[in-house]
Amino acid sequence: MRVKNSPDKRNHKVENFRRYVQRSIRQLRHHRGWSQQELARRLGVDQATISNYESGKTDMSYAQMFELFLVFGKDLTGVLKLTDLEEQSPSPDEKPEKE
Fold this sequence. Notes:
Helix content is 62%, strand content 0%. By secondary structure, the chain is an all-alpha fold. Helix 2 (36-43) crosses helix 3 (47-55).
């Protein structure tokens, strides 16, 4: 019997979410025509911080993520569609679940 919400599966989903956030920041920034420096100015951080967010070297706090949503004029569902996480490929040690 397989555990539906195993630690490995949760870790895989967390990592997918992290990568999705990183891509979303970069895509939203490019869509607005903003440099990392411009987004940093609007958030009150330095350019290296934005680079670290986009590369995954630094994780954003909830407060920082919420402020990012506000800067882009989005709500949480407008920026991150959590259903997209379900479409990510399964981890190598995971079998697809049957509906």
